[in-house]
Amino acid sequence: MRAFLLTRAASVAAAAVIATTGAMVVTGAADASVHYRHRIPTHLSASKSMVKGSSDTMLHARLTTGFRHLRNIPLGGRVVFLDTVRWQHGKIVLTKVAREVTSAKKGMVGDVSMAVDPMKTKHYVWVFEGTPRLISSHSRILTVKGSS
Does 106 lie in the same domain as 52? Predict the structure, then answer.
C-alpha cells in the first residue's frame, strides 16, 4: 500500500512539472514572436517661413504620435522625407528631394527643417514612411513660389 501511494504521489508531481513546463514553453513561444496588434498612429504637421535677407524658404515639420490622450508625444530620431508633388496625367506623383532625421534634442524633439529655393513654384510634402510599430503619415502640401 505504501508503494502504491508513493507511486501515485510521484506521478502527480511529474504531471504537475510537465504541465508547468508545457505552459512555460507555450508562453515563451508566444513572447518570442513579434506580432503587433495595434500600430500607433502618427501625425506630421508642417509650416513654412521666409529666411531674412535671403530668397530661401524654410520648411518645418514636427512628427508626433496621433493619440490625443497621450498628449501628442514628439518622435525624435525618425527618418522623414521631403517630397515634391506634381500632377501628371491626372495622377499625383511624389519625388523624393531630401531625407532628414527628426531632432532628438530637448525642446526640439520631433522637429525637422530644410531650406529650399526653387526656380519656379513648387509644391512640397513631408512624408513619414512608418515602422512596424508606427503608422505612416504625411503633412499638408506646402506651396513655395519661385524666386524668378
Answer: yes
Instruction: Assess whether 60 and 24 both reside in one domain.
Output: no
Query: In the structure, how many helices (H) and strands (E) does the chain have?
Result: 1, 8
Domain that holds residue 130: 42-144
On the 0-12 / 13-18 / 19+ scale of CB atoms within 10 A, 8 is: exposed
pTM for the structure as a whole: 0.70
pLDDT at 66: 74
The rounded average pLDDT for each run of 10 residues, N- to C-terminus, in the chain (148 residues) is 56 58 50 64 91 88 78 85 94 94 88 92 94 92 86
Q: Output the CA–CA distances (angstroms, integers) from residue 55 to 33, 47, 115, in the order listed.
A: 52, 17, 10
Domain harbouring 90, CATH code: 2.60.40.10
